Amino acid sequence: MSKKLLLEKAHVEGIRFFDVYRREGGYQSVDKALKSMTPDEVLEEVKKSGLRGRGGAGFPTGMKWSFLAKPEGVPRYLVVNADESEPGTFKDRYLMEFLPHVLIEGIITSCYCMGANASYIYIRGEYAWIPDILEHAIEEARAAGYLGKNILGSGFNCEIYVQRGGGAYICGEETALLESLEGKRGNPRIKPPFPAVKGLWGCPTVVNNVETIAAVVPIINNGGDAYASIGIGRSTGTKLISACGNINKPGVYEIDMTISVEEFIYSDEYCGGIANGKRLKACIPGGSSVPILPANLLLNTPTGEKRLMTYESLSEGGFAKGSMLGSGGFIVLDEDQSVVQHTYTLARFYRHESCGQCSPCREGTGWMEKILLKILKGKGTIQDIDLLWDIQRKIEGNTICPLGDAAAWPVAAAIRHFRDEFEWYILNPEESQTRNYGLAHYADPLEVVA
Amino acid sequence: MSDTPLFKVTIDNITIDVPAGTTVLEAARKIGGEVAPPAMCFYSKLEGSGGKCRTCLVEVSKGSEKDPRPMPKLVASCRTTVMDGMEVKNITSDRVRDARAGVVEFLLINHPLDCPICDQAGECHLQDLGYEHGAQGTRYEFQRRTFKKHDLGPYIQLHMTRCILCYRCVFTADQVSEKRVHGILDRGDHAEIATYIEKSLDNDFIGNVIDVCPVGALTDKTFRFKNRVWFTKPVFAHRNCDKCCGEATLWMRGDEVFRVTARKDEWGEIMDSEKTGKTGWICNDCRFDKKEAGDWTIEGLADISRHSVIGQGKYPGLTMPKETISKVMDGRNPRLLMDIHEVSEVNRPEIELSEIQGPATSAVFKTKK
Fold first, then answer.
1. Which chain B residues are within 8 Å of A363, Cβ to Cβ?
2. What are the domain boundaries of chain B?
3. Is the Cβ of A368 closer than 8 Å to some Cβ of chain B?
4. Which of B51, B99, B188 sits opposite A400 (nearest CB)?
5. Statement: A339-434 belongs to CATH 3.40.630.10
6. Model pTM greater than 0.90?
7. A18-229 to CATH, choices 2.60.40.10, 3.10.180.10, 3.30.930.10, 3.40.50.11540
8. What are the tens digits of pLDDT across the range B183-216?
9. Is the minimum CB–CB distance between B107 and chain A shorter than 8 Å?
């Protein structure tokens, strides 16, 4: 049984409400930070904990906070990114729905650390019922004196506002989120300047994922060193994984980053194996935008070791033979799934969600979708695969924001690892239209070709 | 200006000193020629423009003197400021050329390629870009994107199919005119320039969106199908206007003024006015209504140094060939083998091109027969 920090109390009845949460030991981190620590000490603990951004990129949180510009007379903001739109990721929803006070507690402490007096939770429009939960929790916290002016007599003021998004994937990108929060069209800004210097309304801003801010609570409660002692290497602490796809027990799991991918998929504590006794074909370990991995490369690293659920281990081997932990959207595909169909679905998603600001992403995503549809319908040619490869290569890295990369990587990885399945669709156009699955010979772990 | 430090920047092995805060693109433009990256969306007179089209991507092979690490990705030169000792590769980098060819291809896959009936042809930045950096053919085999037609009023014609979404017209309407009524609707590849809902663009300075448009998406309705730009002769002229600087370029054929635009420099951007020293935006009165040569005081032929078809015969340093055609062809004089009107389905004088809405296709000519 691995250690749980965030979801330990998730099943206590009424934990959503302040009095139960408080009785179970909630808001201790706020008490501790505001009464006995200076903002710099809080920052030092966060740095010591080695906490990395849980939104996908895995940037060290303490370092991000220390980059925050602190000019005199200019307000600073903390923006919590709850625009969880990555297909396959639903951990933040779970956290906000069942443990809203963990997030609020984390926000108060983080704001205290940064010297921000206002914080915004930008929540995606599709989570229609969650703003009500959060606002109720904020009211409870305010009534208990944890929000508002002069919190706990420390002279520190803090307000939290909940803002609903319109339901656009691109608004999960931090600068597009800020634009949307300002009431503008959600187009990503061109960096630099970075939000830490010029963010919301031109003021220094830190944008963090919900889970990152929530993780501040156990860090302050137990100390940064205790947090850093969990996990391996630079992957410290626990991570929420949203497991979905063809597994027996889909859901949100909190793991400490020491277990192997094999254990995560097959052990009864977590996913409980592949559903219906099928075999594992492939998996996207970190949300739809990270490269897909075939079973043989998923369970073992290119060097033959067991692949662990950590930032480093999952990205071992680079993009040629590895992937990324990303936001923790763990999508499992069994032997009946077609990678071509799957890649087309993703391409359609990215085409629909591209903001249309810069040309490679706007035009390239649509082009890739059309070619993939053509292949899927059995009308493709072998040259189309090379064309797809060339298109993704010209999108990747040439766009303003990472959406271009996110659209290019899944296509690239699918071609890299499952090229023969694409070719099967092209060479067997009739059979591919009557079967709703592709080739299954990836199901068994294969020998790794070094 | 004297207190801003000078930074030494090397672009394609040519070193130049520029003041701190200059962008890589502007530094490259100071060097000029092939070194200057093409820019479809950046417009130095418009605040906030640039970074979107990705044609100006360059490789930074050395960040600065202090931090010599190269930048991992190609950067948009229009939005990257120079550092002291920076080394930039533009056309000397294979990566840049490859990426740029990719961007040109992306810009063209949904472009209707209707240059023969486009008023912008001849002064179109996309034509230049495609000629310099594009491929010969297309690999795109799907139906091109089309849009519902929007009417933007009596002066401005919108061809959304030609638009490359550079946002220049949006910035212009924001910064030059008082109340913007058009913008980008929708997102992704179905994003379009439109007004919400069906308003006409009505502002004294809104005509400037035609000048900033790098392609033929926004064209002058009073000039529509009247002439090709390379048949008209650009002359500088001015008039006393109480709304704007009154300095314009007239596009004339004989005594007839076909079109009035603002004065543009060699990068296709509107020049600063001699009178006010500010950007020489012109008002709608000057642009659309003053179409008589008598309305203007003509100064003389405009300088055209852009590498466009209207620059024909005006390339700097170009001389007339000494040989005659017959001499080159060993005494044979070329002659027309046929009369084009006898064999062509399309080129028929009885069809009035200006009456056709949108792109003219062979179907139009067949039905009108």
1. 106-107, 109-110, 189
2. 6-101, 143-220, 229-311, 332-367
3. no
4. B51
5. no
6. no
7. 3.40.50.11540
8. 888 888 888 898 887 778 888 888 899 999 999 9
9. yes
